[in-house]
Design goal:
The complex is a heterodimer. By secondary structure, chain A is mainly α. Chain A has 18 helices and no strands. Chain A is globular and about 70 Å long. Chain B has helices at 9-27, 35-45, 51-67, 78-84, 153-156, 166-180, 201-210, 228-241, 249-258, 276-283, 287-305, 323-339, 356-359, 370-386, 388-394, 402-410, 418-427; strands at 99-101, 109-111, 116-119, 122-125, 144-150, 188-193, 219-224, 309-313, 344-346, 360-362, 365-368.
């Protein structure tokens, strides 16, 4: 978000432009499966089948599933879907390329039924068919978007007012986790797409296997998902996915250790040391989110969907803009595509600082509102509170200031040139001063975010002030 | 946007090796003296709520159980439980129509007599007296030795059939053991399970006075748990909310001493205490004192009726009652029991050596399953056998000392004794 600044993360391509779709590199040789070993006729080179690399992936996935079972990672639903993925992977791997997406969709639907049972899954399928069907209506985009908005409002009212008592309560969050954000992205895509989207791509985008065990799911970008499909050698994608799943496992184990062994209740803070411990551990509970996101995206990789990282060393952010870019990257991209860029584009005649300021404020207002919207769909309550408002306001202001400073410094500032020099492979000597400054910046960012996080977690502003008072005064 | 760097085969191998190491760490039976490491490993493997959230969860759990309200934020919701594996038809206790509310009564609620339902995936049956056990007559048959068990959900048999409860297994063992050892002189044993889920120590005392004594028990087993203070708090808040007479002078005196005023007993439209948090804060420092007085009253009541009492300390499965968490409440319970000269069987370490997943009824519910109750029964029977006065009370014809009796019954080679055989079977699992 904002002007391109120091972070290497931002210098890369937008998510939907990162990968080349498999079709562009399709091997259209005249050979069939037997003569062109590992490929059916017309299949892309990326899905060439090789026994040894695939067996290696299978063994590693098997070991991971054993690890999930042994450590009881993320409940039985996750274990069930991981086992399903393990069973489905060889079939998916051997299936012809054109059958891979339908097969993965079928596996995802089986997963939905397995986790939630027939009643809930059937209702979710029916409502999903209605929502997706509206997207394909032969009317203008505006009419389709308005119809979906009306339907969403009706569903929200039905849920909030318990008008449909016969519908099990579980249906709403399951449906919501599939559609609440991805439908917005999909609408955005079909508004700007040059050609209509295929039904299998559309349905496959909403029915993603790991989504049925992780209700809080990364906001996967539609175009990134499609362009990343078999965008590299399938074994390389699988290795990357397994690596992500392992990283997710480690993060979830670290989360458990912090949650059980280190985190104290807020009521037990009585001095600076216990306050510091509480602030750090409370913030580190976020490891569960990043762990789950890694796990979910890793599982998609196994089936050929190459996706970008969801988090990137967010604990080491050196500023608030940097932090915003590193934590929940998919959310940041979602905000940039749907809010930041359109606002900046509309205000292109304004002075750049003003346009950036308005766009940043819009992004944080949208983020706040959409977090409440997410809370309503997943938990049944909007969750609006003074600490919540204050958290987003303060973070928004900090990022806003950071964006302005970064924009003013620009890419050609001496600092930027120094950084460029520093990153040059030819000058790899360790410079202590920049390192120390970077360390201080990281510590300051971490402390501020941990402090803000404790505010966000507090039931009320008074409770947070009381926590701070007890922590700082030692009472 | 960050792209993923390509993962080399070498780094994939390294990740695989790390996975195997993690698996091995979880599989190795680490020595018991490595308590800190075992605790860390248990934390890494535990899907339970932590201490802070457990308190909130306990509130939601029990208040949901009694009042039917939803748990507060922080407790696990329906969807989270579903993702943990909770099946269809796993209803909350108060939705299962097995208990009835009694507003204005100090007991507040009790089990409905004659229930036949599926609860937590298991048949839940109550007899005509509202006990989760087989039918018994009010009149004690001649030659029968009766034991009344007072407790809460762990003792009632939450998520297990009554035949699987430790109290029922105790009854079976007493009858078989006495007969096989030739010490019974025709005596039969009945263990009457008066435990009801979420009953606080005060409700257990009230149950003794109003129900159990009518059955003329010869021994009372009072079950204490590490949740008792929380249950006491919920019970008192409910009693104050429903304007129930607090029945016992020591309870009234404690509430007065805590400074709970009439103004703080206001109830809002939905029947909730307006100043509940303030009441809890005022009462909290007085709960152990109240517990002490409750056990004193219970001991006095039993003494007057000529019935001996035994205190047993029953643990939950998992981290909630792990050694560091239970150390203080167990010490306090023992001190209170000692204050009233009541014998204590501390069974709180019964589950320590075992994988919690094998002993709890579900990943989201730390009540012991059938195997957990079996272990509780074995621990209780072992304690009874080693306690000479109680052993002689149960088996007057026993000649050996309690110590010897313990050796006789539980020597692994003593295949004739039922628990000994069971012990051998279980230890070999």
């Amino acid at each position: 978000m904002g002007a391109e600044i120091k972070n290497p993360v931002t210098t890369r391509l937008a998510p939907h432009r990162q990968y080349v779709p498999a079709e562009a590199r399709a091997a259209v040789g005249p050979y069939g499966f037997r003569s062109e070993w590992g490929l059916y006729p017309g299949e892309p080179e990326a899905c060439r089948r090789q026994v040894l690399p695939f067996l290696r992936s299978m063994v590693q996935l098997g070991v991971l599933v054993a690890l999930f079972k042994r450590y009881q990672i993320e409940g039985r639903a996750f274990l069930a879907l991981a086992t399903l993925a393990l069973a489905a992977l060889p079939v998916h791997y051997l299936a012809p390329y054109r059958w891979k997406k339908p097969f993965f969709l079928a596996v995802s639907v089986v997963g939905l039924f397995w986790v939630f049972g027939t009643e809930v899954a059937a209702l979710v399928l029916g409502l999903a068919a209605l929502l997706i069907g509206i997207c394909f209506l032969p009317v203008s985009w505006g009419a389709r978007a308005a119809s979906l908005a009306l339907l969403a409002a009706a569903l929200a009212a039905a849920r909030g007012l318990s008008l449909v008592a016969a519908v099990p309560a579980t249906v709403w969050p399951v449906l919501a986790t599939m559609f609440m954000f991805r439908l917005l992205i999909y609408l955005y895509e079909i508004k700007h797409a040059r050609a209509p989207e295929t039904l299998i791509d559309t349905v496959g985008y909403f029915f993603l296997l790991p989504n049925f065990c992780f209700m809080h799911f990364p906001v996967v970008d539609y175009r990134a998902l499609q362009r990343g499909y078999f965008a590299d050698d399938v074994h390389a994608i699988q290795r990357r996915g397994l690596q992500m799943m392992f990283r997710g496992t480690v993060q979830l184990l670290c989360y458990r250790l912090i949650y059980h062994e280190l985190l104290i209740p807020a009521a037990e803070v009585h001095g600076p040391a216990s306050l510091a411990g509480y602030l750090v551990c409370n913030y580190l509970l976020y490891l569960r989110v990043s762990g789950q996101f890694h796990m979910a995206c890793g599982m998609l990789h196994l089936f050929g969907y190459q996706l970008p990282e969801t988090h990137h060393w967010y604990l080491l952010a050196t500023g608030f803009t940097d932090y915003w870019r590193r934590i929940n990257i998919y959310w940041k991209d979602f905000m940039v595509r749907l809010f930041f860029n359109p606002v900046v584009f509309r205000l292109k005649r304004w002075p750049q600082p003003a346009a950036l300021a308005v766009a940043t404020v819009t992004v944080f207002l949208a983020t706040w509102a959409l977090h409440a919207y997410q809370s309503f769909w997943l938990r049944g309550s909007w969750g609006l509170s003074a600490p919540d408002a204050l958290f987003w306001s303060v973070l928004g202001v900090l990022v806003l200031v950071n964006v302005q400073l970064d924009a003013r410094r620009g890419r050609n500032s001496p600092a930027a040139r120094s950084r460029a020099r520093g990153s040059d492979a030819a000058t790899r000597r360790i410079e202590l001063r920049p390192l120390a400054i970077r360390g201080l910046k990281t510590a300051a960012t971490f402390t501020t975010i941990a402090l803000l996080w404790s505010l966000w977690s507090s039931p009320s502003l008074a409770a947070w002030l009381d926590l701070m008072h007890r922590g700082l005064s030692g009472v | 946007m960050a792209t993923n760097p390509a993962t080399s085969v070498a780094s994939a191998r390294l990740a695989m090796l790390q996975c195997l190491v993690l698996l091995a760490v979880a599989a190795v039976p680490w020595p018991e003296r490595w308590a800190a490491f075992r605790s860390v490993l248990a934390s890494a493997r535990s899907p339970e709520l932590n201490r802070a959230e457990r308190d909130v969860h306990a509130a939601g759990y029990y208040e949901g159980l009694i009042g039917g309200g939803d748990g507060p934020e922080g407790a696990r919701g329906e969807l989270a439980l579903r993702l943990m594996g909770k099946p269809n038809g796993w209803v909350r206790f108060n939705d299962a129509d097995v208990s009835r509310l009694m507003p204005g009564d100090f007991l507040q609620f009790e089990l409905v007599p004659g229930v036949h339902r599926i609860l937590f995936g298991q048949p839940f049956v109550t007899n005509s007296h509202g006990m989760h056990s087989a039918e018994v007559s009010l009149e004690k048959p001649p030659g029968t030795f009766r034991i009344a068990v007072l407790g809460a959900s762990l003792d009632m048999g939450w998520g297990v059939t009554y035949q699987e409860t430790y109290s029922h297994q105790l009854e079976e063992w007493l009858n078989v053991h006495g007969r096989r050892r030739g010490m019974d002189s025709g005596r039969r044993y009945e263990v009457l399970n008066f435990a009801v889920a979420a009953y606080s120590p005060l409700q257990r005392l009230e149950t003794l006075r109003r129900k159990a004594l009518a059955f003329h028990p010869d021994l009372v087993i009072y079950s204490a748990t590490m949740l008792d203070l929380r249950l006491m708090e919920i019970h008192l808040c409910d009693a104050l909310r429903t304007r129930t007479d607090l029945t016992y002078d020591f309870v009234k005196a404690t509430v007065d001493e805590a400074g709970v005023s009439r103004d703080q007993l206001q109830v809002e439209g939905e029947g909730k205490l307006v100043f509940k948090d303030q009441i809890k804060t005022r009462m909290r420092p007085h709960y152990w004192q109240l517990y002490d007085a409750t056990l004193g009253e219970l001991a006095g009541t039993c003494r007057s009726a000529g019935v001996p009492v035994v205190i047993v300390i029953i643990p939950r499965v998992g981290k909630a009652d792990a050694p560091p968490a239970r150390a203080e409440p167990v010490a306090r319970l023992k001190a209170i029991a000692g204050h009233h000269a009541l014998p204590v069987y501390d069974l709180s370490d019964t589950f320590d050596r075992y994988d919690p997943a094998s002993l709890e009824i579900a990943a989201w519910d730390d009540h012991p399953n059938a195997l957990g109750h079996r272990r509780l029964f074995l621990a209780l029977a072992r304690s009874l056998v080693k306690d000479e006065p109680r052993y002689r009370l149960l088996f007057p014809a026993a000649r050996s000392s309690g110590k010897d009796a313990g050796k006789t019954v539980f020597t692994p080679t003593g295949a004739s004794a039922e628990p000994a055989a069971a012990e051998v079977r279980m230890e070999s699992e």
